[in-house]
Structures are given as C-alpha cells and as structure tokens.
Automatic annotation (TrEMBL), chain A:
Residues 227-265 form the ORC5 lid domain. This is Uncharacterized protein. Its main location: nucleus. It is found in: Nucleus. It holds the Pfam family ORC5_lid. GO terms for molecular function: DNA replication origin binding. The keyword Plastid does not apply. The lineage of its organism: Eukaryota, Fungi, Dikarya, Basidiomycota, Agaricomycotina. It comes from Tulasnella calospora MUT 4182. Keywords: DNA replication, Nucleus. Residues 389-549 form the Origin recognition complex subunit 5 C-terminal domain.
Automatic annotation (TrEMBL), chain B:
One of its GO terms (molecular function) is DNA replication origin binding. It comes from the Eukaryota. Keywords: DNA replication, DNA-binding, Nucleus. Belongs to the ORC4 family. The lineage of its organism: Eukaryota, Fungi, Dikarya, Basidiomycota, Agaricomycotina. It is found in: Nucleus. This is Uncharacterized protein. Signal peptide: none annotated. PANTHER family: ORIGIN RECOGNITION COMPLEX SUBUNIT 4. Its main location: nucleus. One of its GO terms (cellular component) is nuclear origin of replication recognition complex. It comes from Tulasnella calospora MUT 4182.
C-alpha cells in the first residue's frame, strides 16, 4: 500500500503539487519516503526540483537556511582564505541568513537562477522535503508556520513536504492561521513492498571488481532470481516475530550465504574438477577464503540451479532456520560472526543427495555455536564488579539493597533478635509479581512489589544499622549468629572506614546519593543502584541467602 | 474504454487536480450574494484608491479557508490596469516593525526600481538595503510617507493582521493608517483643483480573528476607516455540494483539447463525465460523507483536500469516483486514527503493549519497564512449561533478551506511545521511570488481532499471569 501511495504522491507532486503535504511515517519505513520521492522526482521528466533537508542537522535557523539554499543551488561550501565557509548567496548579498524574509529573498533568487539554468520555468516547482520534522518542534518552533507557507511568502511555486514520525497534531502549533496539510500516512508494511525493497538491496555486481568479502560469490547476479525466492521464505518464517525491513535486512544478510552455499559448493567443485582433473571431492572441505582464483574462471560453469532443486534448498534452509533465527534476531550474535561460523562449517553440494546423519551434524553445529556465544556474553557482566570490591563493600552494598527494597517498618522483624540470639523468623508472606485480581475501576488496585517499582531512598543511619546487623551475623562468613555483644566500641571504630567505603560506592554509582550534596549532617539519603542479581551474588559469596532477608522476595 | 477516452480521462483528471489547487470562485445563484457583494465592495475600495487617489483602509475577516486571500487576488486583478504597487507583508514572517520595514523597502525597490529609504552611508542600492539591519525605527514614518509620493497608487496587504497589532506601540499600523487617512483628507480638499497628481493608498488587513478591531490601540483605531469586509464559507449544504460539482465538472481547457482531434468525441466525453459526476454526487453514501464534512468544517480548502485522493485514484480501471474512496479519504484527512500503525510493530513491542494491558487490568495505569519485563518473562516462563502442542507447534512464547526488550521499550517511547509521567528525575534509574500508555485499550486489542500472531492474541485474551 505504501508504495502505491508514494507513487501517487510523486505523480501529484509532478502534476500540481499542493503547497503543503504532511507525511506521517511512524515506523521509519524503507525506503524512506523522502529518498523515494526524491529519486522518482529526480528521474522524472517534469520540471520539479526535489530538495532534501534533514531537520536533525539543522539546529539553528541559520543552518536550516544554508541547508536549503545549498541544496537548491547544489552549492558545496568551501573554506575561503579567512577560514570561513563560503555560501552561494554571499556573491549577491551578505547577511542574508539573519532573518526569515532575507532568506525568502535569497530563496527566490536561488530559484530563479537554478530554473534559469534548467530552461523554461513554466511548470517548474520547488519541492522541499523536510525529514525528521519532529525535531523542528524542539529546535525551531517559530519556523514551522513560515515553512508551511513558503509558497505564499515567496510567491514562487514551492511545495513543502514534511516527513515525520510524529503525527501532525503533535507538531502543529495551535494557531488558527496554519495551513492544513494534505495528510499522507505510510505506516503499512505489506509483504510485497518489503520484499521488493529487500530485493533492491541485492548488490549490483561490477564486472571485474574483486571485493574482499569472502561470500562475494553468493551475490553473483546469476543468483538474483533465487534470492527473491529466498526472501519470500525468510519473510514467511519471520512474520510472527518481525516484519521490520531493517530486521529482515539483517537476517537476510546473515542467512543468504548459508542458503545458497550448496549451489556455490557445486560451482566450486565443478571448477575444481576442471582445474585439477581427477580430484573430485575436494569441494567438501576447501577453504572459502581462496575464492579469488575462481573468480577469474570462465563464468559458464556458474548457472542457476534448476527449479526442481529450489524446494531442496528451502527444506535444508528451514531445518536450521529456527535455531539460527533467535540469536540473530535478538542480536546475541552478530551477522558477521554468524557468517564466519557458518563458513567454517562443512556443507554439501546441491547435486549430492542429502543424508540424514550429515543433516543432523550440521544442525547440531549450527544450533550450538550461537548459544555458546550468548552465554559467554552474559557471564562476564558481574565478574568484574565482584572482583573489584572488597568483602565489606559488598556487604555494605547488600545492606543498601535491603534498605532500598524493604519497608522501614519491617526492619525490626527482619533483624530483631531475642536474648537467645536466634533470629525471629519473620519474613515475607507474599510472592513476587503483581497480584492480579479482577480489580478494575473503583476497587483498590493490586499492590506492586517494591522490586518492580524500583529502589526506595533510605537514610544513612538505617543503612549503618542494617550493615551492622549484617556484619554481626555474616561478617566472617559464619552462618550462625556470633557473640551478640560485640560492644559499641567496635562499631564506632568501623564508622570512618564504613563512611569511606560508602563514598567509594557512591563514586562508583553503585549507590546514589539523593538530595543536596553539600550537606554534611546525618540526614543523608541514599538509594541503591544495583539489581537483585548482583546483590544476590554478593550475598551468596558471604554464604547467606538474600531472599531470606527481603520482605518481598523476588520469585 | 477506448484509448481516446483514456487520454480524455487523464486530461480530465489533470484539469480537476488543477482546479482543486485553485478552487473556483462561487458564481452560482446562491453564492453570488455573499461573495459578490464582498468582492464588489473591495473592488470599489481599490478603485477609489487607484483611480481617485483616495486613502482607504479596510479589514477582511473570515475563518481560515474561506477565501480571503482569493478575494483579494481577484480584486487586485480587476484593478490591474492601474498598475498599483502591491506590498505584501505577513505577520508570520515579519515579527517586528523593523523586519516589516525592510521587507517593505525591498518590495518597493523591486517594483519601482529606485530606493526610498534614507540610508546614511552607502548609497541607495539594493545591497545597501538588504544589509541594512540597523535601520532605526525612526525612519518608519519617512518610509511610509514616501508611499504616497510614488507615481503609482499603492496597495499594502497585511496578512495575519492581528499579529501586527502585537508589535511595539503598533507603530507600523499607526503610520500606515495615518498616512491613509491623511491622504484621504488631501484628496478631498484638492479634488477640485484640476487633475490631481496625488496617488492613493489602500491598506488591507487580513485576519481570521473576529475581534481584530479590538486589538488596536485607540489612536490607531481612530485612524482606521472601520470598514470590515466579511468573507464566509458556503452557508448551506446545497451550496457546498455545488462547489464540489463545479470543481469536479471543470471543463477541459483548450490546451487539453488540442490533443484530441474529434470534437464529437470530446462532447460525448464531457456529457458522460458530467453524468458520472452527477451520479456520484447524488449517491447516498457520498452525500453522507459530504454532510459529515460540512458539519465539521465548511471551508472549501478542506473539501478540496478530501476530494484530492479520490481524484488521484482515477485510472482506466476505475474511471469513476466512488463513495467508498471518498469515505476512505475523509477518514485519512479528517482526524486519522493516531495509532493505526501499532499492528505493524514487532513482536517485542506488541508484547510490551499487551503487558501494559494486563497491568492496567490490575488497576495500575502507570508502569515502568521493570513491571512490563516481569509480566512478559513470567508469561514466557508459564507458556514455556505447557506441554501443549497446537498443530505441531508449541504454544510457548519466544524468549526475548532483556536488552532487546529495552530497545523495543525505547522505540515505543520514541513513538510517543509510552509517555513519561511527571518530569525527568536524575534520582530514578531508567528501568523504574514511570510511563503511561497513550494508546487506548481498544487500539491494543485491534493491533494484536490484526498482527495475526496467535500466541500474543491468546495471551491478550486469556489474561495475564497470576
């Protein structure tokens, strides 16, 4: 649908462009509306002059004016002798970029001159395609209205096209004089559009050029029809999870060489046999990197496999599809490393029969390699942090976590001790997760556990108290409570060290300090900035279970 | 259809597109009264200035899209023979009097070929003017006084007149109106002294604000003639339809006829086209759409906007306008649904939306990423352990790593589907910042249903995690 809409729009812009068009493109469709319109208008025979302006790059009105004029006149700014960029209009009038009306004047002059070089100006019109207009709302809100009325202001045929990911009602200033735009929405992503876009990305081969890409054989122009088939299969396979053209581009890039590999193996084997005479089966394990010599071979050997072989390729592809899709889609493995992993694995030739054991081994290797990579990434996260902190710092951090996620009124139940030195086991009654209940309007909302709402702030005194309790019970790795009379002195001695440790933790941003930073009294409020996983791993190092000390443990 | 009629259809389509851009002035019996009288009074006012040397001022008021600018263009056309100097200023572009003055000087230079400003140093050429950023406003009366000394009558058009009233001390308006009034007095006293060499000036303000007159300061107001010309959009539905008919039945001009040899064919085409338009406009559904439109906005510009898409859709395969097309275009142009694109979103984004749906079910309109993530991962866990297979596929939802989910969450924030509650605070870490969902519950249900993902749909329908 969107291609049809854009085609129609391009036609309209060539015939009788309305002064103001607004294109709502929330999903950043591919190809982008501006590039599509620019190309189709540029290649058309009409007198329209399409000009693209990226509002992201225009922070000030001066930059915007220069961007427009430079585009209209195809002027490339250069540095002059004074080290300043020259502008096209400087030849005529200086300081034209100071205000809007001088800019309009400059635009008129630029238009006249450019049209003069093009020829007749009867049907000529200037089409300004503004991309990312939502940024203008923040940077140059005062210019939105004049830009929409450029046609009236300059009295030359200008069509302003705004392209934005935000809807028009978000951008339009609430002024009655604003021109209502002709609205176009290009949100839909139909299968046909997406596939034709992906197809257009198939690299155009330049004869005789040798690229360094190891898989360049896979992008041989002969294979283009097969590529279309592949895209259809890929699209269908991905439909439940993604139809985003960018995602699909990524997947297609990673998966296409694997899909087409059996065909390539055939090619290589044929060339090999031509070259090496009786060495027939070398194609199986030959390295991919030595493609270069084959590129110089006559191309007759490289033919598209017969149609009857396509289902075979698809079947082979689909067997490994599910295992390779998730890691690629979730980006736990990059397309490049996936390609490398695949290239190093044995494959087979299309002309050979598939055998069950061969398939199984390939599948196993395919599915195992991405997972390993994924685990490796996840494991290294807390390791560095744990190694850099001392034991007492970890304990302080666990104390901060408890202070942040337990309500203050539960501290006595959690850490209170009877004379015998046994912990009063008062702990959470609830399990994690937001309790459902058919509570809708009028009834009281279900309570959300603190762990989902985020850390609460706590005072320094409370942290020190909890830290003290933790030190007494778990400080030396004892599981049983140690002597309950540690003496006030010991705690007092610890205080300076504790505060130093705390400062360091705050500097590491593992604990956040809330409120005014220049206050030195005891009313310091803090917030824990580490998640449950980190705190729990530290607690485990001290040989105690963090969940036992939480009022509302994570399930 | 024959190739000839293909060509004619194409020509007709182009002609209609052109007339949509420049809708015709209503000239039928019903429209004649209001528009014509305002046109007449404006023309007579301009004639007074251009022919009899009067100084005139007036305000053209009317809602947007009612044809104010068009009226002025038409009136100017009729006094074109007197070759007046036309100065156009807009309150949108000229934010203060200095800018307005500079623009005025620039237009004067362009139209008369000589300079009237009083620069002190560097001559009086165009370059000096354009760089004259520092013209003091004290030159304003001098500049405006030159307007009446020109050898041609002057017409000053002030678009967005109400914005000029916000300028400091309304100096520009004061000077302009004062000059106009003074010119009036002069021409009265000198009217008998033979053929006067003094040329008139007309100041025309254009505004959508009905209370514009009250914005003027007393001294400015007393110099204004008080003439108001009101322009109104079509007041009755019949008139409105008539406008649509005039636009759609626009006759092919000579330029297009040149391409067609047989006159008979053209006549035949015109009658058949007019017939098809008449059928289209008498269709019940068409009338309903037009009535909806008329009751929302009466202006012609909106009508043209809505008609544009059906006309663009004309092709040899569908050579007539249809009511369905019109309805579609109406929906797209007048308040399009803000979240129609949700169904095109990816699986992680839709999962997050469903999670907000379930969290709202528990009574929480506000949510943070952590809550959504918890909801989603529990759902994945729950469905993953189900030993149920449907059509050989497991009902388990696909796992998504937290990083991808964070990306999806951020993209929804960027799309403004999730909007933050309250100001940003440095003390709240990212996953705990509270948001609310701008999309309605109905939008989410529709999006998930249309996305065609059965697992998501069943999650939405069966309810969340307990």
């Amino acid at each position: 649908m969107s291609t049809k809409q854009l085609n129609q729009l391009a036609e309209l812009l060539q015939l009788h462009p309305p002064p103001f068009i607004f294109i709502h493109d929330p999903l950043h469709s591919r190809p982008t509306p501006s590039s599509f319109l620019h190309n189709s208008l540029h290649n058309s025979t009409s007198q329209s002059m399409p000009v693209r302006i990226d509002c992201n790059a225009c922070l000030t009105s001066k930059m915007l004016f220069h961007a427009i004029i430079n585009e209209v006149t195809s002027w490339v700014p250069e540095l002059n002798t004074k080290g300043r960029a020259t502008s096209w209009f400087n030849r005529h009038v200086s300081k034209w970029d100071r205000s809007l009306d001088s800019f309009v004047e400059a635009l008129k002059a630029a238009f006249d001159e450019t049209i003069g070089t093009l020829g007749t100006r009867t049907n000529a019109n200037l089409i300004l395609l503004f991309e990312n207009v939502e940024r203008l709302k923040e940077t140059l809100p005062a210019l939105i209205v004049p830009l929409t009325r450029l046609c009236e202001l300059a009295q030359i045929p200008i069509s302003t096209v705004f392209i934005s990911s935000a809807p028009w009602c978000e951008i339009s200033p609430p002024i009655g004089t604003l021109t209502e735009p002709y609205l176009v929405s290009v949100a839909s992503r139909s299968k046909q559009d997406t596939i034709s876009y992906l197809n257009s990305l198939f690299p155009v081969a330049v004869a005789g050029s040798s690229t360094s890409r190891p898989n360049s054989d896979a992008y041989n122009p002969i294979l283009k029809p097969l590529y279309s088939t592949f895209l259809g299969v890929l699209y269908d396979g991905c439909t439940p999870y993604t139809t985003d053209p960018d995602d699909l581009t990524h997947l297609a890039y990673a998966m296409w060489p694997g899909f087409v590999r059996p065909v390539l193996e055939d090619w290589w084997a044929a060339e090999q046999s031509l070259e090496g005479g009786d060495e027939k089966e070398r194609g199986e394990d030959r390295p991919v990197s030595s493609n270069e010599e084959h590129r110089r071979k006559p191309q007759e050997l490289r033919t598209l496999p017969p149609d009857s072989a396509t289902p075979l390729l698809i079947r082979h592809f689909l067997v490994s599809f599910n295992s390779s899709f998730s890691p690629l889609h979730n980006r736990t493995i990059s397309a490049k490393s996936f390609l490398n992993a695949q290239a190093s694995q044995p494959s087979f030739r299309l002309s050979q029969r598939f055998t069950a054991p061969a398939m199984a081994s390939i599948n196993a290797s395919l599915s195992s390699s991405p997972k390993k990579t994924g685990l490796g990434l996840a494991g290294s996260k807390h390791g560095d942090l744990g190694a850099s902190l001392s034991k007492h710092k970890k304990l302080l951090l666990v104390g901060a976590y408890i202070s942040s996620f337990n309500p203050a009124r539960t501290d006595l139940r959690m850490f209170g001790r009877v004379a015998e030195g046994v912990m009063k086991k008062g702990r959470a009654r609830r399990t994690g997760g937001i309790s459902t209940g058919k509570s809708l309007f009028g009834r009281k909302a279900a309570k959300v556990p603190q762990v989902l709402l985020g850390p609460n702030s706590f005072t320094l005194e409370r942290l020190l108290a909890i830290y003290g309790a933790l030190v007494v019970e778990h400080g030396d790795g004892h599981t049983a409570p140690i002597n309950l009379q540690p003496g006030q002195v010991e705690i007092e001695v610890h205080r300076t060290t504790v505060l130093t440790m705390l400062t360091e933790l705050i500097q590491l941003r593992l604990i956040n300090r809330i409120g005014q930073h220049d206050r030195l009294d005891n009313n310091v409020t803090l917030k824990c900035n580490v998640g449950f996983e980190v705190a729990e791993s530290f607690a485990r190092e001290m040989k105690f279970n963090l969940s036992d000390l939480l009022w509302d443990p994570v399930s | 259809m024959s190739p000839g009629s293909h060509r004619l259809l194409d020509a007709q389509r182009k002609a209609i597109l052109q007339s949509l851009l420049k809708p015709p002035v209503r000239a039928n019996a019903a429209g004649e009264v209001s528009k014509h009288s305002s046109l007449q009074s404006l023309v007579s006012l301009l004639e007074g200035s251009t022919e009899r040397g009067e100084g005139n001022s007036c305000l053209v008021l009317g809602p947007r899209g009612s044809g104010k600018s068009r009226l002025i263009e038409d009136a100017l056309e009729s006094v074109q023979s007197r070759n007046p100097v036309v100065i156009r200023l807009s309150g949108e572009a000229q934010h203060d009097d200095r800018l307005a003055m500079r623009e005025m000087a620039r237009q004067l230079v362009r139209q008369t070929g000589s300079s009237y400003i009083l620069p002190t140093d560097d001559g009086a050429d165009a370059e000096g003017l354009a760089s004259a950023d520092t013209i003091p406003t004290t030159h304003l009366p001098a500049l405006i006084a030159t307007l009446t000394t020109l050898s041609r009558p002057t017409v000053v058009i002030l678009e967005s007149f109400d914005l000029f009233a916000t300028h400091a001390r309304q100096a520009l308006l004061y000077c302009l109106l004062d000059t106009a009034q003074a010119c009036h007095a002069h021409s009265d006293s000198q009217a008998n002294e033979g053929p006067s060499k003094r040329y008139g000036i007309a100041v025309i303000g254009v505004s959508t604000r009905m209370d514009t007159l009250n914005l003027l300061e007393k001294r400015v107001k007393s110099r204004f003639s008080g003439r108001l010309i009101r322009v109104s959009p079509p007041s009755s539905f019949e008139e409105y339809v008539d406008v649509a008919k005039t636009i759609l039945q626009v006759p092919l001009t000579s330029e297009e006829i040149l391409e067609v040899e047989e006159e008979e064919e053209l006549e035949e085409w015109t009658s058949s086209w007019n017939q098809s338009i008449a059928t289209f406009l008498s269709n019940k559904e068409t009338i309903r759409v037009l009535k909806d439109l008329f009751s929302l906005r009466q202006d012609i510009r909106t009508l043209c906007q809505v008609l544009l898409e059906p006309v663009m859709n004309l092709s040899p395969n569908s050579p007539a306008l249809t009511a369905a097309n019109l309805r579609q275009s109406f929906d797209a142009q007048i308040g399009p649904p803000p979240f129609a694109y949700l169904r095109e979103l990816s699986y992680p984004c839709l999962s997050l939306l469903i999670a907000t749906f379930h969290i709202a079910n528990t009574g929480h309109e506000a949510f943070n990423f952590e809550m959504l993530w918890n909801n989603f991962s529990r759902q994945v866990e729950r469905t993953g352990t189900m030993p149920v297979m449907i059509n050989g596929a497991s009902v388990g939802m696909i796992k998504v790593p937290r990083e991808v989910m964070t990306g999806a969450f951020e993209s929804l924030v960027a799309l403004k589907v999730f909007q933050p509650i309250g100001p940003a605070s440095s003390t709240i870490t990212k996953p705990f910042v509270k948001y609310r969902c701008a999309a309605q519950r109905g939008d989410i249900v529709e999006a998930v249903e249309k996305s065609g993902n059965l697992k998501l749909n069943s999650w939405l329908k069966r309810g969340g995690v307990e």
